[in-house]
Amino acid sequence: xxxxxxxxxxxxxxxxxxxxxxxxxxxxxxxxxxxxxxxxxxxxxxxxxxxxxxxxxxxxxxxxxxxxxxxxxxxxxxxxxxxxxxxxxxxxxxxxxxxxxxxxxxxxxxxxxxxxxxxxxxxxxxxxxxxxxxxxxxxxxxxxxxxxxxxxxxxxxxxxxxxxxxxxxxxxxxxxxxxxxxxxxxxxxxxxxxxxxxxxxxxxxxxxxxxxxxxxxxxxxxxxxxxxxxxxxxxxxxxxxxxxxxxxxxxxxxxxxxxxxxxxxxxxxxxxxxxxxxxxxxxxxxxxxxxxxxxxxx
Length: 298
Description:
The chain is an alpha+beta fold. Helices cover 36% and strands 17% of the residues.
């Protein structure tokens, strides 16, 4: 049975951050809800400015990350899971991330079929038991050195995939539910698409014609595709990326990051307003589904 998580001292968390965040420049989510790219030392010097930090990349998996939109922080104990390296808890609503850091990062493009299947087996099993968000990409986590917004617990221990083998044998029953071998975070299509589009963003502004852009992206995609154990058809992915990048070639900024074509996020589409709109939408949806007309109640 797992033992309860223990609070971590500030110096322990900062040391762990320094030693295990492997990027000099990180993708981040800022406190105002917008996304960007900053140097590692900026986060160390001003952790309160960032609510999300990069922990994995599209090429390497450094940590198994799970986004839990509920308040049961100790649910991992019910399934005899290992202690998370870090559990990052939102002070306001109790929602949290469990992070299991790996001793050796796993290259996602060159992972053999057996390892990839085992990795997905582990991820699916833990995700189901924890009730975590299966669409979470695991690239950006809550910022575990921002103590103003998050409470940090954990063991700071690092694991190998074999440390989870007993868990998968004990708790994953293929007769209970079908294992999806390729979750979105490990999908060949997603890995290929992300790799292609990030490359395309960087060269779009310098391309003299659509054909030049398309050919450059196509050649790059062929190289990436060769590294996949089971190559996939790239024509339509390249075409879609080329069309988008050609239409927006003058809108890209190499020094900035965001999730939808590098468009600068305004106050109207920031995280706070998006959250408010989503809350209003859900409220309206619940009212419409309610068998009693709540609008007529005085």
